[in-house]
Amino acid sequence: MVENLADVIEHGPRDQQSDASVSDLNAHFEKCQHLLNSISGSINTKAMTVEGQKRKLEESEQLLHQRRDLIGKYRSSVEELIKSEP
């Protein structure tokens, strides 16, 4: 299609065929542009999703560490109570 359009532009006057070629080329360009925009949006969405998942994982790890610390403190407190009983 592009070669036909280039041939018309180089060798002849504009006519209905060249106008139709330009219209076809514009339509294909618009479809490609739409597809690229769609892909770009999808990539951004997935990247945001991955970043969100990473944040959730980091938050979960932090909560897990806090829980372990609290369990350790609880265990120490219980052991001290047991030792202090007569």
From TrEMBL:
Subcellular location(s): the record lists: Nucleus
User: What InterPro entries would the database entry show?
Assistant: Med9, Med9_plant
Question: Span of the secretion signal?
Answer: none
Ranges for the region named Disordered are: 1-23
The keyword Disulfide bond belongs to this UniProt entry's keyword annotation: no
Q: Which GO molecular-function terms appear in the entry? A: transcription coregulator activity
According to its UniProt entry, one GO biological process term is: regulation of transcription by RNA polymerase II
Highest taxon above the source species: Eukaryota
Compositionally skewed regions (Basic and acidic residues) per UniProt: 8-17
Keyword Transcription regulation included in the entry's annotation: yes
Keywords from UniProt, A to Z, are: Activator, Nucleus, Transcription, Transcription regulation
Q: Which GO terms describe its cellular component?
A: mediator complex
What family does the Swiss-Prot or TrEMBL record give for this protein? Belongs to the Mediator complex subunit 9 family.
* Described purpose of this protein according to its UniProt entry: Component of the Mediator complex, a coactivator involved in the regulated transcription of nearly all RNA polymerase II-dependent genes. Mediator functions as a bridge to convey information from gene-specific regulatory proteins to the basal RNA polymerase II transcription machinery. Mediator is recruited to promoters by direct interactions with regulatory proteins and serves as a scaffold for the assembly of a functional preinitiation complex with RNA polymerase II and the general transcription factors.
Assembly and interaction partners: Component of the Mediator complex.
User: What is this protein called in UniProt?
Assistant: Mediator of RNA polymerase II transcription subunit 9
Protein species of origin? Carpinus fangiana
Give the encoding gene's name: MED9
